[in-house]
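Session log. Operator J.P. requested a structure for one protein chain; no other inputs attached. Running the standard single-chain path with token output.
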Amino acid sequence: MLLGGAAAWPLAARAQQPTMPVIGFLNSASADGYAVAARAFRQGLKDTGYVEGENVTIEYRWAEGQYNRLPALAADLVRRKVDVIAANGVALLPARAATTTIPIVFTTSLDPVQLGWVASLSRPGGNVTGVTSLNVEIGPKRLELLHELVPAANIIGLLVNPSNSNAQTLSGDMQAAARKLGLQLHVLDASNERDFDRVFAALIQLRAGALVIGTDAFLTSHSEQLAALALRHALPAIFQYPEFTAAGGLMSYGNSLMESFRTVGIYTGRILKGEKPADLPVQQITKVELIINLKTAKALGLTVPLPLSGRADELIE
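Structure written below.
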């Protein structure tokens, strides 16, 4: 009897153990393109005591740049009754449409109050909170920085993803900034990899002297490819995240993608511990960094003005 009881005890103990909480990680890009962001998210979780595979499970759903897949992916996570959904940018709207009860933590470059996603930054209300950065707001500043580095370029391209709800806002702001600087701005669309060659062919035909890459998860996930294409076509370009300059892009100016996702991870962990999204203020990532790749500038035959290099947070040589 004693032997049978001892053998049965571990099974009974295991049966009484609570199941691990499950997080739905809903992202509009790809696993490869957002590997750094996913690691930062897991670090944020770890900072609150949660480690994937040990005391929490993460269900990843990647739209692979096909934003029309997001509603079905969000609905799948809701059917699986995940405890929290972490959604990036354009993935938030399908997540909100799929559930009003499961907590959602977002990261966005837009104003969530203006868009009606939360009641206020300090008291979000409802089942949604998250992190907002300045990357759309500072789009015009990227144009100014590019103009400072390449003052002879009076025809500029702006690359946006038309599938992203921020494309129209960004295009309007950038057109206004271009007019102030006396520049011609041409907006070009790319929503899949096949569009890239067409876009760069159009830039050559337009005789564009430089390129601003818009804020978008799909474009971010192809930072390396865009950096290589810009260099191959001898086109000075600026983007938002450091991954672009690290991959050989000329300049980056924006907030940290890693900091945004780490904060989303922290908030997700706090919600798993019992805090309500309605009571968690929307975090604002306000630190902005300017990084210039001097090696790329040299390859493009550009001399970086001392005032500009002096303002840079990092120079890659």
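Operator note: The chain is about 40% helix and 20% strand.
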